[in-house]
What does this fold into?
Amino acid sequence: MKPAVVLLMGWLLIGCAGTPVQVEEGKIVYEQYCASCHGLNGEGQANWQYPSEDGFLPAPPHTDNGHTWHHPDTQLLMVIANGRNKMPAFQETLTAAQQEAVLAYIKTFWSPEIQAAQADVTRQSE
Ligand code: HEC
It folds into this structure.
């Protein structure tokens, strides 16, 4: 294999925190199951910082502007599997691999700096 290809693969693996195949599968899952609330580009719902009339928080953005990246992978996967308040549980709908793939796709909404910061949060939690 050419060195450039090896470098590119390394970048994809480390930089995107998910294999290209995983990210592609995650995109399909995200657009089918998550985009209706969290937005096609992870922009979240309006006034997501404030509880709505029912007392629950709207869906937060998954971009640099949200707080998804403040949490380690294990915690995010737990919310995806079990849900929280108005966030539905997906453990019956999605396989574990699909849940991991969708998280890998969410990470592509983050800038390189935020990806690195969240990777640190994840490492520190282990
Ligand atoms: C019906 C709307 C809805 C759908 C569909 C939905 N979510 Fe959510 N999600 C929410 C809400 C609301 C919250 C905030 C819950 C709370 O903390 O009260 C949330 C929170 C989260 C969080 C935690 C974010 C944080 O900063 O703590 C993650 C991760 C997440 N969702 C991922 C997903 C994924 C992945 C999917 C698709 C498989 C999905 N959500 C589908 C409404 C939704």
